[in-house]
Amino acid sequence: MVRRLGSSLRTLVRRRRFEDDMSEELRFHIEQYAADLVRSGVAPQEAARRARIEFGSVDTVKDGCREARGLWLFDEIARDVRYAVRLLWRAPGFAVAALATLAICLGANLTVFAVVDSILLRPLPFPAAERLVGVFNSYPKAGVPDDGCSVTNYYERRGKIAAFTALAAYRDGTAIVGETGATEREQVTQVSPDFFTTLGRGPVLGRAFTDQEMTAHASPVVILTDAFWRQRFSGDSHVVGRTIRIDGSPATVVGVLPADFRFLSSQARLYVPLTSRPEERTPLRRHSGSSMHMIARLRPGATLAAAQAAVDAHNAAMEADDPEAKVIADAGFHSIVVPLHADHVAAVRPTLLLVQAGALFLLLIGAVNLVNLLLIRASGRAKEAAVRQALGASRRRVVSEAMVETTVLTLAGGLLGLVVGAAGVRLLAVLGTDRLPLGAHVVFDLRLALAGLAGAIGLGLAIGGPVAWYNLRAHTARALQSESRGGTAGRAAQRLRHGFIVAQIALAFMLLSGTGLLGLSLKKAMAISPGFRPENVLSGRLYLPGMGGVARLAFIDRLMDEVGHQPGVLAAGVVTEVPLGGNNIKSAVSVKGHRLQPGESAHGHYTYGVGGDYFSALGFKLREGRFLTAADTRHAERVCVVDEDFARRYFPHGGALGQRLFPGLQEVPGVEAFTIVGVVAAVKQAGLTDEGAQGAVFFPYSGRFDDNLFVVLHTSRPPESLAATLRNAVRKVDPELPVSDLRSMESRIADSLVARRSPALLAGLFSGIALLLTALGTYGVLSYSVAQRRREIGLRMALGARPEQVRDQFVALSLRLLANGTVLGVFGAWLTGQAMQAVLFHVPAFHLATVVGTAGILGVVSLFACLLPSQRAARISPMVVLSEG
Amino acid sequence: MGKTADLLPGTLDMLILKAVSLKPLHGYGVLLRIGQISGNALEIPQGSLYPALYRLEHQGLIAAEWGQSENNRRAKYYSLTEAGQLRLREETADWNRLAAAIAAALSAVPEEV
Q1: What was the pLDDT predicted at A484?
Q2: CA angle, B74 as apex, B68 and B79 as ends, to 5°?
Q3: Which residues of chain B are within 8 Å of residue A64 when distances are taken between CB atoms?
Q4: What is the pLDDT of residues B93-102, one digit of tens each?
Q5: Which positions of chain A have pLDDT values less than 50?
Q6: Are strands A569-575 and A708-715 parallel, antiparallel or unpaired?
Q7: Other CB atoms closer than 10 Å to residue A600's CB: what's the count?
Q8: Are strands A586-591 and A604-612 parallel, antiparallel or unpaired?
Q9: Pairing relationship of beta strands A184-191 and A270-273 according to DSSP bridges
Q10: How far is the C-alpha of A666 from the C-alpha of A609, rounded, in Å?
């Protein structure tokens, strides 16, 4: 069997050679026979003639030989393909319309699928990546559902949980890298020594980190990513042992990672040890997590549930001696084990699937259009199909011909779709896919192209079904007798076409109403006030590693002085993190004298350090008291400002001013409290649609600082025009300090909505195309109905029917189709809304105005599409039609 | 040419295998050889030879190779493969059994029934 298939394939590949050899062989035979005849005394010409006759038809013999080689199947398909191409060539209008529909619909699906595939489907690039899990601490009752893990957690858990073969911790950050005068800010990830063993991939050059390197006083070491190694060390293979300066101190290179090492969405170019001091590893610090994350590798055979149980048991054992056990338990503390990949992309999963569903709807609508067009074409050729079947074409032939024809079409459309898809992936990057988790590596590769072509072939076969069915039915004697266009139409075929139109209207209805819901959600989200004045605010990020408190304050003072006097700057301030900046961290704050009620838990609040005129620069609204001023920072006053949400939580009856609070879970003896001197209006911290009313506390920068710092300028001109001014001012104060992420606050807000805007935009695009396709589909089918019934209409008009009656008859038909489609569509819209619940914002799943609006738009478009053919029907002249034949 | 017989279905393959088992032959040679070994008693339609040759080659029972003919022309020579030899032996045995059975049946006389 295998050998025969091989023989067929060999012949197929060297087809030309096979044909030439065969011709030569047969010619040799005939000539040889003729020569023998001549030798026996026949005249040469007569001999040649007799040889040819006795041999028989060379073509028949050749066919026999080809068949013997199993070539008939290939030949038949090739013949059908040629036939299909010829047919398409003869109907360029149809071909262009069909190919454009396919290219757009398949391209749209491929584009979205490229993203879905890269983000949701492809496993992470690690061996047995499905066994990688994340472990994080959760304090749901404190409003902190995900708090990463602490250094203590790491040291207490590693090696102690049997369900894991390895466990590691990491923290993302940045560092100033390079020699004085040529420094750059780089993304750096701090990792524990077992980080690479947990992932299953580590340095290809050199080694991973050791436990000794985890102590704060160890001499710094670094592992380079391939990109960094190539760029900074030109791929030097003796790089291990060389040093680079990180945050001012020289670090020794101990390893280089492989070129395709990618950890989740990390942009890190360097990996350094996650160092800690012994006091950070004590039980006292067990719950001071924040910004550290834990990953682990499941033991083969261990389930997620088993791992969860093991972590729970371990936590329980640890809590036994926890001094804060009560507070922690009240906060609902537990640790959660999640699949690493799924958890990383969980937030974008519903949106991505929704957009993919939208694209599939578009494809369905396009496919329905195509089937209807093909059915109309097929009915134009019904007679031909009937004749061929009468002459003995088998059912198999009829079916395979239809399938080949539609597949040729969809495959060609699929190839065009690849082009559209490749371009679409670029477009999506503009719309923000590169900022999605794992979205920076969306690729349009062979795997995707193959998926696209497989999809195109599948679509071709699916579309070929109804066409083949129609052609098979065409073999009845009636089709032979009837004229190809005219007489009684195939009732069933007509019902099928009309059914498809109804389906198309319903699908378009669902797509449109879904888009409406997305648009409405976006509109509601955009209407939310961020709580500050986003206009005319420029913000930029600085990074001040290893600077002492005094130096830091002096730096800020000089910078505020420098930048505050630039023309165009109305107010300048600094803050540890701007609202909607994406890294807004919550931490515990305790209010002096506030007793937790039974069942109430300590709460996490957004905490910030601010300096300069931060509040006026960002346009905060003052409710009570005063803002913090530069003097508060300069003199390290123990004062703070809280927002309304915070004030309402702890002082529901007012009187927040003058109250005192401590950073941390409880009052620390001997530490002076911060006095509340002002209450400001609440500001959206994590996102515009964030509704947590989490509360925020603003300390003077001297009281709470961070290596990261944002400079915020209120400008009298377009904020971007002051970017150079800010850069220059920073450079004047510290020539080594780069400013990054320089943007207006408005663009930050716009960015924070990208997860809502981009899907809505895409859905809008899909809906527009769907509407166009539906209009074309209705128009095409109705036009055909009119053309097909010309004789009947002519006859009726000759017998006295008025043109309006004829027109109304067709309008009524389309109204009926529209009504059926709408009824189905409304039901579908309800289902769509239910399915979309997760991504909607303040919009009910069934939104009446949206449904009515959708019905209106679809109604107008479909009626418009049916009016033209109906008018044409009304203008049919009985004299002309009846004299036609 | 003497009296000729039509081929029984399926016997052409066997004759071809037999013909090329003696020595490699080109298509026309196969025809002549069958004529020769059957004492010109079997008439083979010339054209039907080639599909049979291609089928046998496809089945791996014979192998083809281009070579020089006796009058120095390029010709395709067929020879028997190992699988072909096996098949020829089987078919010969089968045929002999069948032929003997039929001959016995046909030579029966009334008294023996």
Answers
A1: 43
A2: 60
A3: 47-48, 50-51, 54
A4: 988 998 899 8
A5: 483-489
A6: antiparallel
A7: 13
A8: antiparallel
A9: parallel
A10: 20
Please enumerate in sequence order all residues whose Cβ is within 8 A of that of A251, keeping only pairs 6 or more positions apart, or say none.
A220, A221, A222, A243, A244, A245, A272
The DSSP code for A119 is I
List the single residue in A7, A28, A69 with the smallest CB-CB distance to B28: A28
Cβ distance A864 to A782 under 8 Å? no
Q: Are A376 and A780 a contacting pair, CB within 8 Å?
A: yes
Q: Which candidate, A331, A307, A337, places its Cα nearest to that of A319? A: A331
* Euclidean distance between CA atoms A637 and A630, whole angstroms: 10
Residue type, A694: Q
- Answering whether pTM is above 0.90, one says no
- What CA–CA distances, in Å, run from A144 to A351, A586, A689? 24, 7, 17
- Phi first, then psi, for residue A590 (nearest 5°) are -115, 135
Is A884 an 8 Å CB contact of chain B?
no
Kindly give the residue spans of alpha helices, DSSP state H, lying in A565-663: 614-618, 630-634, 644-650
Q: Is B4 helix (H, G, I), strand (E, B) or coil?
A: coil
Eight-class DSSP state of A667: P
Largest CA distance in chain A: 133
Question: How does pLDDT run along chain B (113 residues), one tens digit per residue?
Answer: 445 566 676 788 888 999 999 889 998 889 888 888 888 887 788 878 888 898 888 888 999 888 888 888 888 999 999 999 999 999 899 889 988 998 888 888 877 65
Phi and psi at residue A858, to the nearest 5°: -65, -40
- Write down the pLDDT at residue B6: 63
Beta bridge partners of A575: A610, A710
Task: Provide, as residue numbers in chain B, all residues whose Cβ is less than 8 Å from the Cβ of A74.
Answer: none
Residue of B53, B58, B59, B76 best to disrupt the A interface, most CBs of A under 10 A: B58
CB-hemisphere CA count at 13 Å for A634? 9
H or E element in which residue A761 lies? helix A754-788
Contact A620, A681 (CB under 8 A): yes
At residue A573, φ and ψ (nearest 5 deg) are -155, 170
Task: Write out chain A residues lying below 8 Å of B40, CB-based.
Answer: none
Task: Tell me how far apart the alpha carbons of residues A534 and A297 are, in angstroms, rounded to a whole number.
Answer: 44
CA atoms within 13 A of residue A722's CA, in its CB half-sphere: 29
Mutation pick from A12, A25, A55 vs chain B, by most beta carbons of B within 10 Å, is A25
Residue keyed to tokens 């091989």: A6
> A681-725: per-residue pLDDT in tens?
988 888 888 777 788 999 988 877 777 889 999 999 999 888 998
End-to-end, the C-alpha distance of chain A in Å comes to 58
Quick one: which of A189, A107, A147, A39 has its CA closest to A665? A147
* Residue B28 Cα, gap to closest chain A Cα (Å): 5
Ranges of beta strands (E only) in A649-794 are: 660-663, 674-680, 696-700, 708-715, 740-744
**Residue the block writes with tokens 């029917």:** A801
Among candidates A33, A65, A70 on the partner chain, residue whose Cβ is nearest the Cβ of B50 = A65
Query: In chain A, which residues have their Cβ closer than 8 Å to the Cβ of B69?
Result: 28, 32
Start-to-end CA distance of chain B, whole Å, equals 39
